């Protein structure tokens, strides 16, 4: 995802052993923005009976600091995940390196 020239939001769906079931691209955006609704993330998780998931998106600029929109989306997804009882393990931003909301204590 580092080499993408536009933002892409991807969900990695996992089984109860945290093995990858599949990866689904949710949205493609512009150079610096991608609009994603929680329902678009949970639709494939429900269809594939995922136990858990990791949300991943890239920043084509290479900077991995989360934007306000990234922070808000993460909070909304975390709330919805509790309702659906699907484990939201992390939200990772890929750029020159990566930013993990879990590692940063934001999830």
**What does the average pLDDT come to?**
91
* CATH superfamily grouping of the domain at 1-27 and 36-60 and 75-87: Cytidine Deaminase, domain 2
Low-confidence stretches: none
Ends: how far apart?
22 Å
By secondary-structure content and strand pairing, the structural class works out as alpha+beta
- Strand order of the main beta sheet, please? 2-1-3-4-5
CATH architecture of the domain at 1-27 and 36-60 and 75-87: 3-Layer(aba) Sandwich
Tally of helical segments: 2
Share of residues in strands = 25-35%
**Count of β-strands:** 5
CATH class of the domain at 1-27 and 36-60 and 75-87: Alpha Beta
Give a structural overview.
The protein has two helices and five strands, in the order ββαβαββ. It has a domain at 1-27 and 36-60 and 75-87: 3-Layer(aba) Sandwich (Cytidine Deaminase, domain 2), CATH 3.40.140.10. It has a five-stranded mixed sheet with strand order 2-1-3-4-5, with helices on one face. The mean pLDDT is 91. It is of the alpha+beta class and 107 residues long.
Q: Which key features would you list for this structure?
A:
alpha+beta; Cytidine Deaminase, domain 2; 2 helices
Topology:
Layout: E1 8-14, E2 20-28, H1 38-47, E3 52-58, H2 68-84, E4 87-94, E5 98-100
Parallel strand pairs: 3-4
Antiparallel strand pairs: 1-2, 1-3, 4-5
Summary, kept brief:
The chain has 107 residues and is of the alpha+beta class.
